[in-house]
């Protein structure tokens, strides 16, 4: 095996470790005979740690996107209403207010405020797409291969 190249079993270990952060459990789920020893040996390798780091970063970015979409879909508009209904003399700290759901604010010539919010339904649709695709994309390579093989066999049986 060339240095720097990971086998399918090692990649599977990396995926499991990125999810559970436990070397023994990841090695066991990946099919290693003595998981505790295998997990320690694998974690000692630089390329394994780099792959896990990359996978963890991808997972963190996805979680951040999901968190933002949840704020758009379910976030409060109370601070926006407080801003609209506020008297000019009212003293409030705008820095402590949450305007995450606002896409645009206009002050028309006639007075008042025009506030446009992000579309909650679109945020929910995006969340739905991520959750549906997350099940497939988070599948381990081995299991994904089995699933595709089963589909191919099923297609041949129907012919």
Strand percent estimate: 5-15%
Largest sheet: spatial strand order = 1-2
Sketch the major β-sheet. 2 strands, antiparallel
Question: What is the CA-CA span between the terminal residues?
Answer: 41 Å
Rg calculated over all Cα atoms: 25 Å
Annotation field: number of helices:
7
Low-confidence stretches: 135-140
What does the model show?
With about 160 residues, this protein is mostly helical. The chain has helices at about 10-20, 25-30, 35-45, 45-75, 80-85, 120-135, 140-155, and strands at about 100-105, 115. It has 2 domains: about 5-75; about 75-120, no CATH class. About 65% of the residues lie in helices and about 5% in strands. A two-stranded antiparallel ribbon has the order 1-2. The longest helix is centred in the middle third of the chain and has 29 residues, at about 45-75.
Explain briefly what this protein structure is.
It is built from 7 helices and 2 strands, in the order αααααββαα.
Q: How would you summarize the topology of this molecule?
A:
Elements: H1 8-20, H2 23-30, H3 35-44, H4 46-74, H5 78-85, E1 102-106, E2 114-117, H6 120-137, H7 141-157
Antiparallel strand pairs: 1-2
What are the defining features of this structure?
2 domains, 159 residues, 7 helices, elongated, single chain, mainly alpha
């Amino acid at each position: 095996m060339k240095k720097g190249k990971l086998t399918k079993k090692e990649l599977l270990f990396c995926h499991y470790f990125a999810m559970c952060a436990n070397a023994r459990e990841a090695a066991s789920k990946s099919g290693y005979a003595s998981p505790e020893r295998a997990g320690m040996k694998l974690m000692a390798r630089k390329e394994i740690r780099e792959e896990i780091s990359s996978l963890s970063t991808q997972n963190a970015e996805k979680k951040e996107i999901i968190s933002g979409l949840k704020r758009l879909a379910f976030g409060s508009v109370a601070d926006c209403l407080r801003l609209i209904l506020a008297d000019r003399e009212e003293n409030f700290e705008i820095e402590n207010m949450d305007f995450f759901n606002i896409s645009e604010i206009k002050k028309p010539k006639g007075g008042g405020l025009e506030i446009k919010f992000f579309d909650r339904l679109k945020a929910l649709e995006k969340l739905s797409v991520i959750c549906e695709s997350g099940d497939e994309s988070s599948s381990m390579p081995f299991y994904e291969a089995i699933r595709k093989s089963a589909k191919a066999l099923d297609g041949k049986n129907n012919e």
